[in-house]
Structure formats: C-alpha cells, structure tokens
Amino acid sequence: MASIKIRTKRLDGNTQIRTLISHPMEHGRNKDKTTNQLIPAHFIQVLTVKHNDKTIATCNMGAGISKDPYFAFLLKGGKPEDVIIIDWVDNLGNKDSEQHTVT
Amino acid sequence: MKVNRRKFIKTTIVLTTAGMTLFHSSTPSAQWNAADFAPNPFDKAMKQLLNGKPIVETDKIDLNIPEIAENGALVPVSVTSSLKGIQNIAIVVEQNPVPLTIQAELMPELEPFISARLKLASTSFVYAIAETEKICYSVKKKVKVTIGGCGG
Lengths: 103, 152
Known about the structure:
Chain A is mainly beta. Chain A is about 0% helix and about 50% strand. In chain A, the strands form two sheets. Chain A has a four-stranded antiparallel sheet, with no helix packed on it. Chain A has a three-stranded antiparallel sheet with strand order 1-2-5, with no helix packed on it.
C-alpha cells in the first residue's frame, strides 16, 4: 500500500522535502450522491517525518486538509544518503510508512 | 472512624489530582487531541490552540495563500517565518466547521516552513499561528472562495 510519495531536492544548502499522500480525507459531512447516505469521516490524524531515525516534524491535522494531501518541509542542511521516513495514521487506525533516500 | 474517612477522601483527592497533573504534563503535545479537531466555534478553537499564551500580530510570518480561490476544496498554502524559536505552526480557517486544520510541531532541524493544501468551506480569514515558548504570533489573510459561479 504505497500511498506516500516523497521527493527531496537540495535547495541553497537546505533540503526540501515534499510529500504527496493518496487519502480520501473525508470529513464526514459529505453525502454519497447515489445512496444519499453520509460518507463516514476518514482522514489522516498524525503525520510524522523522520530524518535518520530522529523525528523532525509531527503534524496533527483534521479533515480541513484537502483530499490527497500534499506537504512540504525544509530541512536545514541535509546531505546525500540521508534517510527520510514519513508515516501517517488515520482515524480508522490505518497507517502507512515510506522511506526515501536523499540524492 | 470519621477522621479516617475524611483523611481517606483527602488523600484520594490529592493523589488523583497529582496523578492527573503528572499524566497531563507527561503527555506529549504531539498527541492527536480530538477536542482540538472537534467542530468548535472559531473563538473556542483559538482558545484551545493558544493554551493561555498571549497572541501577538506580526508581519514576520509570511502566509502565502491566494486571495481568490476558485476551488475551496484545494487551496495551496505555505507559511514561512523569520522569527526565532518557533516550535509549532498552526493554520486556522475561521469559517470552517473545524477551524483548526493543521498543527505542525517542528523540531529545530527544520526551517520554520510548511506548505500544505487546505479545504475552505467558504470565504474566510485564514490564520497562520506560530508558537514560540512564551508567545504565539499570528498573521491573517482573507481568502475569497468563488466556487459555484460568480458569488463571493
């Protein structure tokens, strides 16, 4: 279930980390057009970014983030072969994790 | 008997309060808190977010968001700041049913920068709040959502 895409780019001595996650991010107030039932809430709650096993960012979020969320961070320094790990947990307990090596 | 019972109640209360305080302080702030992301009115959401810290408007936070969003379901936003010692960056949308959209705890290894894409229920002020150890700094910008024709 590779739902996470990670791209890194060296920018003026810093490393830009960009991530795109495929996730419905339903807030629970939308209706299914065919059945007219409410679509249950389903959104990412916590996203963590690790740099060489050290957590550098923890993002708590609600369903106010768009579907298929995109995030970008800027790491001070960073060098090739650094390992970036991003994982998320949603309100239904699903989770995913992806590892990326800076080039 | 009476004294014992009184004593018992007193100790229980003291211990419970101590335990709760201890538990509360040992809970990392990073933990997802359902109350923060409940459908709250804007004032209450802000109060919970600030947690008693004073809030100061500043021009040192750069909130980059389009003034007119054609589609409220996908509004790109990025926040940068030249302030020192930022621990948290939060983005709050005034008119959303759940005003707090994201609260990012950034370690010193990261530049105070975050970029994301938001949902906006309607035309609204968007606040970027940067939290330092003692003070919260904020900046706001109005975003017009024009979905559904020429309204706004």
